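Same chain as my last thread, 282 residues:
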Amino acid sequence: MRHALALATLCCAALLVGGCDDTDRSDKSAGGAKSGAGAGARSAPAETETGTEAATAEHAATVRAAVAATGRTSARIAQTHTIDGTAIGEQVHTITVGGDFDFAKDRGNLAVTLGPVAFEEVFDEDNVYLRGQVPGDPDGDWYLADRRAPARHLLRAPANDPEYTLSQATMARTFARAGEETINGAPVVRYRGALPHEAVTLRMEKATSDKIGEMRRTLGGRIPADVDVWVDARGRAVRARLALDMGGVTSTNTLTFSELGKPVRITVPQGEITEGDLPESL
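reply #2:
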């Protein structure tokens, strides 16, 4: 069993960090693309947490309603995704995302930092425009891709699309009330659930989905991925966290919403734009 877990951990590391440290490929694929964005959630400190109750379908309904409420408005977004493989000799990779997103109108602006490479992203309905910014080339060309592209990485949304992450968060069959906390000075209730296989592999390309299936069989059970959702007093989701802990590799993807209802304006890039698939690093 120990050997099987080690193999699964190595496989997990590859599926999580693929593309994160390949700065040359990232540069070539988007924006700078002339050819063609810690510990597991359970270790994060919680403010005034009061304990975890039994998981129920009723709590799941509360979470889904809260995510739907957020999905009918707009918000400022702050996201951090940390992938820590130091226990098996890998590096810590951190992807940060910030910007504004109007979920009701399917549009938004995001700024992504992925290692030494920065990306601008403009979402306009089913399109996502990307431009890479690397040292020596701050104004790369715009690149156009399909926002609904398949996912390539565990717990990472294609093009850092916040709607994708929220969709995954609602797929837990039951949630437990994990405690009362505060976010930005406002009271919230935290709910915790287990992500099923269909959430982990949501809209995933076949090659990656097959690898995750192999890892699942090696483990002899589900991929150990969990979700936490924080709901404010108005019944809106104001934070979601997807987390995976394989023992040697942890992945924590935290998405926080503030200024709900704020106006969001985008400027759709014009001029010469390269069309194609999403870069592998995204």
